[in-house]
Fold these 2 entries.
Entry 1:
Amino acid sequence: MGYLFRFFLINSIRCRRTQWLAFLGLLPVMFAGLILLLKPVLLEHGTDAASLFPEVSVLLYIHFLLPLAAIFNGTAVISSEVEDGTLPYLLTRPLPRRTIVLSKLLAGAAVTAVILTLSIALTYSVMKLGSGIGGLITGAGDYLGMVCILCLGLAAYMPLFSFTGGVLNRPVLAGLIFAFGWEPAISLIPANIRYLSISHYLHLLYSSLFGDSSIGKSAGEAILSIFYRPEEIPAYYAILILILISATFTFLSASLLRVREYRLDKE
Amino acid sequence: MNIEVKGLSKWYGQVIGVNDLEFTIGPGVTGFLGPNGAGKTTLLRLLTGQLKPSRGGISLGGNPVWNNHSLMRDIGYCPENDSFWDYLTGFQFVTSTLRMHGLSSGQAEEKALAAISEMKMEQYRDRKIGGYSKGMRQRIKVAQAVAHRPEVLFLDEPLNGMDPLGRKSVIELIRDSGESGKTVIVSSHVLHEVEEMTDRILLINHGRVLAEGNIYQIRKLIDNHPLRVTIICDRVDIMTSRLLEFEDVSSVQLNREANQITVQTRAPDEFHRRLPRIALDNNIKVKSIWSPDENLEAVFDYLVR
């Protein structure tokens, strides 16, 4: 598994998807720069760029970059080998089929995690520019907390999208619908259906780390929360559920090559 | 190592890939011969455990193939499709596939170099596969299939698009592997290609095995089938009358405007031997000769009928 992981790691670094993802990772940094430029306006409202880091990061990372990165790298775990026609080279080696999927999933997750961590580190640094070295160090807890939430989110999203990439014909579209349609939509429904969303658990973790924030929620969600406040589960439950989602979909996607066969697109 | 196929069928929804196949293949070279779309690739992908049989079974040395990754240690497979991790060099590609066989870095590099040199690819080994010609890509594909010295080798249309030097290397390699007691299966849609590698073939069409055995027996079957031959020459009337003198010629169609004659013969080999003599004796200038039936599809149509 060690060699295969390294092989897929290099493969992931070299692929165009990762280059696009690295570019997308710069968008939150640019957004942070924009906020920094608005410093005088923020000061008028009694706040500054540095204190907005948690809100900005939940909006740009948990709701945007994390699911997007997981969709592109997760769905590609099996489907890219099928689409590129390279699957036969892997299936005709003395490698357990689970190992093939697990190695690629891990390599994809590692590359995605590095991009997200670097991106959020840059965003954090830009937003704390005005606070000096002291501000950077005192706020490091916020940064590390956010990185932990993103890693947990990635651990849940990647196997889920890896599984959909192995079973659906248009996994990217399905992933986009799930992350940017289903998840925001069900957060507006005042019932326990919101537990069927990964971002909900990430939100719970965010709230427990940084306190509640209306910026972290969509506008509709914020309005709804005035009238209806569902009974929330504690943070460690959220962590457990995310780990459970991760384990379940890791197992399912790793089992796919054992039970499912693939016709190559170029056949 | 023997390959045993029992009652093997594979279908995709309503489409039948292979249908109720039953055969045993032992050491030596065996050719899977059939036109494009005959089911050769599906059969090879079934034999290498990439596809799951819909019905029936396949075993290699008595072990089932599907979901049996340890069996892959003895298998080498060269796919038909022209797909690679294009950013790798030829050497990195072969080394990577060897590392996936569990070989150490040193062993993998040593074996990769040997396989690459066998395919006469030494001077291109450090070039990226993305920049390879079709023939070079074919050769590097074969190199990765043979590099770990497998007991059973499956080569799907290995000579497709290959240059003469590459063809020579691959044909030699296939023959040598067969002679050394390995089980080699080569698929092709070109009869003379298979003839160069082996005399033992399985004729496949529409997912079925039409004939199995020695290539000369099958050649005889093929040679007996009525063949149309089109000739463009001057003095078409004389040529037509001379051709009609022979018993094997069952019909002649004459197109004076185009100076073209289409003959149907039941003895194609004899016909081709006789034709130059007729032209010489009657001072006829032959511009071109071709046979619209001389493709494998036509031969298969004949065999099926």
Note: Chain B has a mean pLDDT of 88.
Entry 2:
Amino acid sequence: MLFFTWPFAAFFAIFYPIYLLSRRTVLSRNLVFIIASYFFYGWWNVHFLALLAFTTGLDYLTALGAAGRRLDSQQLAKSCGFLLLISGIGFALNGLRQAELLLLPPFAACALFALATWILNRIEDRQRRAKTWLLLSIVVNLAVLAFFKYVNFFGESLDEAFSALGVHLGFVALNIVLPLGISFHTFQSIGRTVDTYRGKLEPSTGFIEFAAFLSYFPQILAGPIERAGHMLPQFRTIPPITWALIRSGAMLFLWGLAKKIVVADNLAAMANPIFAHPERFSSGELTVALLAFTFQIYCDFSGYTDMARGLAKIMGFDLRLNFNLPYFARTPSEFWRRWHISLSEWLRDYLYISLGGNRGTQFMMYRNLMLTMLLGGLWHGAAWTFVMWGFLHGAVQVIYRMLNIDDRLKRVDDGSAKGVIANLAAWAVFMPIVCVTWAYFRAETMAQANMMLARIARFDGMTSGAWSTLAFYVVPLFLIECGLRFAPLRIRYERSPFLLRYTAVIGLLYSVMVLTSSQGQAFIYFDF
Amino acid sequence: MTGAKILRKTAIVIALALWTLAFGELFMRLIEPQALMPRYVTGTPYGIRGNIPGATYHHYTPDVSVEYRINRQGMRDDRTFADAKPAGTCRIAMLGDSYFVGYELDLKDTIAHRIEAGLRAAGYKVEVLNFAVSGFGTAENLIAYRKEARAFHPDLVLMQWQVTDYDDNVRSGLFALKDGALVQTSDRFLPGVATQDKLMKSALYRTLADHSQLYNFLREQIGWRAKQLLAFVRKREAGPAGGEEVEQNTYLISPIQVRLAAALLTEAKAEVERDGAHMMVVDIPNRTPERVFSSSYDLMPPEVKQALPPVDAIPLFRQALKKDGATLFFPHGARHLTPTGAALLSGEAIRRIEESGTLRGCR
């Protein structure tokens, strides 16, 4: 169910009044969230409801265990009961078919929960017990992710590698459907367990609030990857809902909607045919396609995040900022502080720091950086193109750190003419690098990306008529973002006369109505 | 709240509503100019839509500006035709929707006009009578033949075919299949006509319809969605799809729709032949995906394709596109045929008419 479709509009129109009524108690409100979120998720595919319930059950237990606690039968019963209930509903919705797929695995999972609890409760050393629970969470979550997302990629890659050596493994690709949002909620869930292990978060015994947190429908499919420390407290209270909050949430939703269906989808219609057959196009057309994708992916993903944050606001919830004008970044480290912030911070806190972070020699720091970016690339998709994308970003970060460019920029960034020129120059150097990396992110194969970039470098046919279409969608966005970055546009907007604000809103509404692409696209990040 | 306050609030709401509309009009004109394509149609005594007799109106799109003159018989023509056929002259009746009306084309570029001119140039004494009305499907074409065209004694009937007919035939609810046989289930399909007739009496409405881009945008959007909804409901009412649906040109076509369309064409052919005339189907190629042409007529059962082989201009379209990148459908507006597209289709129709020898007696 996409946020910009009629089924979602109908869903939300029914959900919201019920949600408002349910706010009398935290429990009833959280139950309504769970029902709505599982309905929202199951709308796509009922088969994976049990998988979401499994992750919920597993991480409810592992977070408690990772805090060093001994689990009791009540906690085990909550996890198993929830998993079996959701599986049963999924089975019923599937017309009581495929019991071997929808009922047997949940029973097996419950047996696993019970066995793990029984074994780990026997470990006397608290620290060892906590560490084992943490490992269990990481191993099982990553195994599930690996099975659904990476098994074919690694199988095929191994097969190709061995074939080159003359050994044929005969790997047959499995027909696996990737559960929507699995990368997001798996990381969210692991993050909570690690936080409790590190003592940063006191695990709650409240199962319902955790289940509501993990399945929260505005962000379950494509993030932001929330921290339990930020979100769980919101599921323990009834946050106030004011008209100002509703208005601001609705405006954020509308802005995200415009970015998605006006800018991203129209740019996709330009980029897709060219990326499908790059060999047929001139340098100019390929450059337009690459730039179109550069802004498409930004508007697609940040548009989704804005819509998610807007919906959460309307419900009185606060989802974290995930994009902060990333294309104004002057260096890679600044870019990653502005682009997909929730993932960047997750990778920093749970991977980079776990690998040693900035501790140790410079070589170790660069190694940690490269490894983090490579795995970050792989997180986006099971293909070598994503690994290459991560590698390029890692390599650029390493080079920038070696040259100490962030510090040098800080030193000259004093508002002087010299500072402005330095900032502009840094931006003008870094932005093309970002665009080049997107070629690998978008291309079907490495060879295709290489060929595209080689053709772009020829600089022929640069007068393609598509530039004006690109400018039509990108220039207004760029001007608005310039306003947000360099002038206090948001504050000016909020202080401007009512008629101006009203006109801005109807202008956005008309854009959404009139400029919608005829080739509506699903969100890119749903594939991750 | 006092009366003055209520009055003030009401005035503010009205002012905002007017500003919303005015801003919308400005937005359309500056950012995304819309096609102004008012439909001058009304109800006919036999329960289907017809062009408003004697109407003159314009369509403006980003590509063209076209004047439409409807004669007093409801045809897009400057002439009025006598019921009786002039001696030695053959008549062709054209039945179809906006493609055959010649939307986005000047009268001289319409398929009807080109076919008549082409055949006359080849030495035929021929009159082409254009009974097409925007929005018609095969079901309405059949009724238009029975109630209008038949009275003019045509020698040849050219019935337009295009992908929208599958939906149009179900949506109209005029005919259905009962135990495999075609039956007329309703004698009336006048969507929105009563409202339109009332509105057309107002000069303000006519001004809006003829000149407001916002109004035209909203009418197209609402009309399109209403059409989709009605087709969806009628498809459900028509019973099980009868198999897997096929996607063509963004339409989902079920086997039951194909069977209904086939039955309608077969019935039309039988009735035309009973009247001593001949019938040909003219296939308007699918234009989606862009610049890839295909035929929705391909879905028809083999026996229908054999009995009524369509006038098929797709090879010519592909050739023209490959040779000089010809634009065959307008890129904006309602994306009908360009003069080039209409010329190619008319040329192929003329070739097929000559090849069939149907009008041999009038040469």
Note: Chain A touches chain B at residues 499, 502-503, 506-507, 510-511, 513-515 (CB under 8 Å).
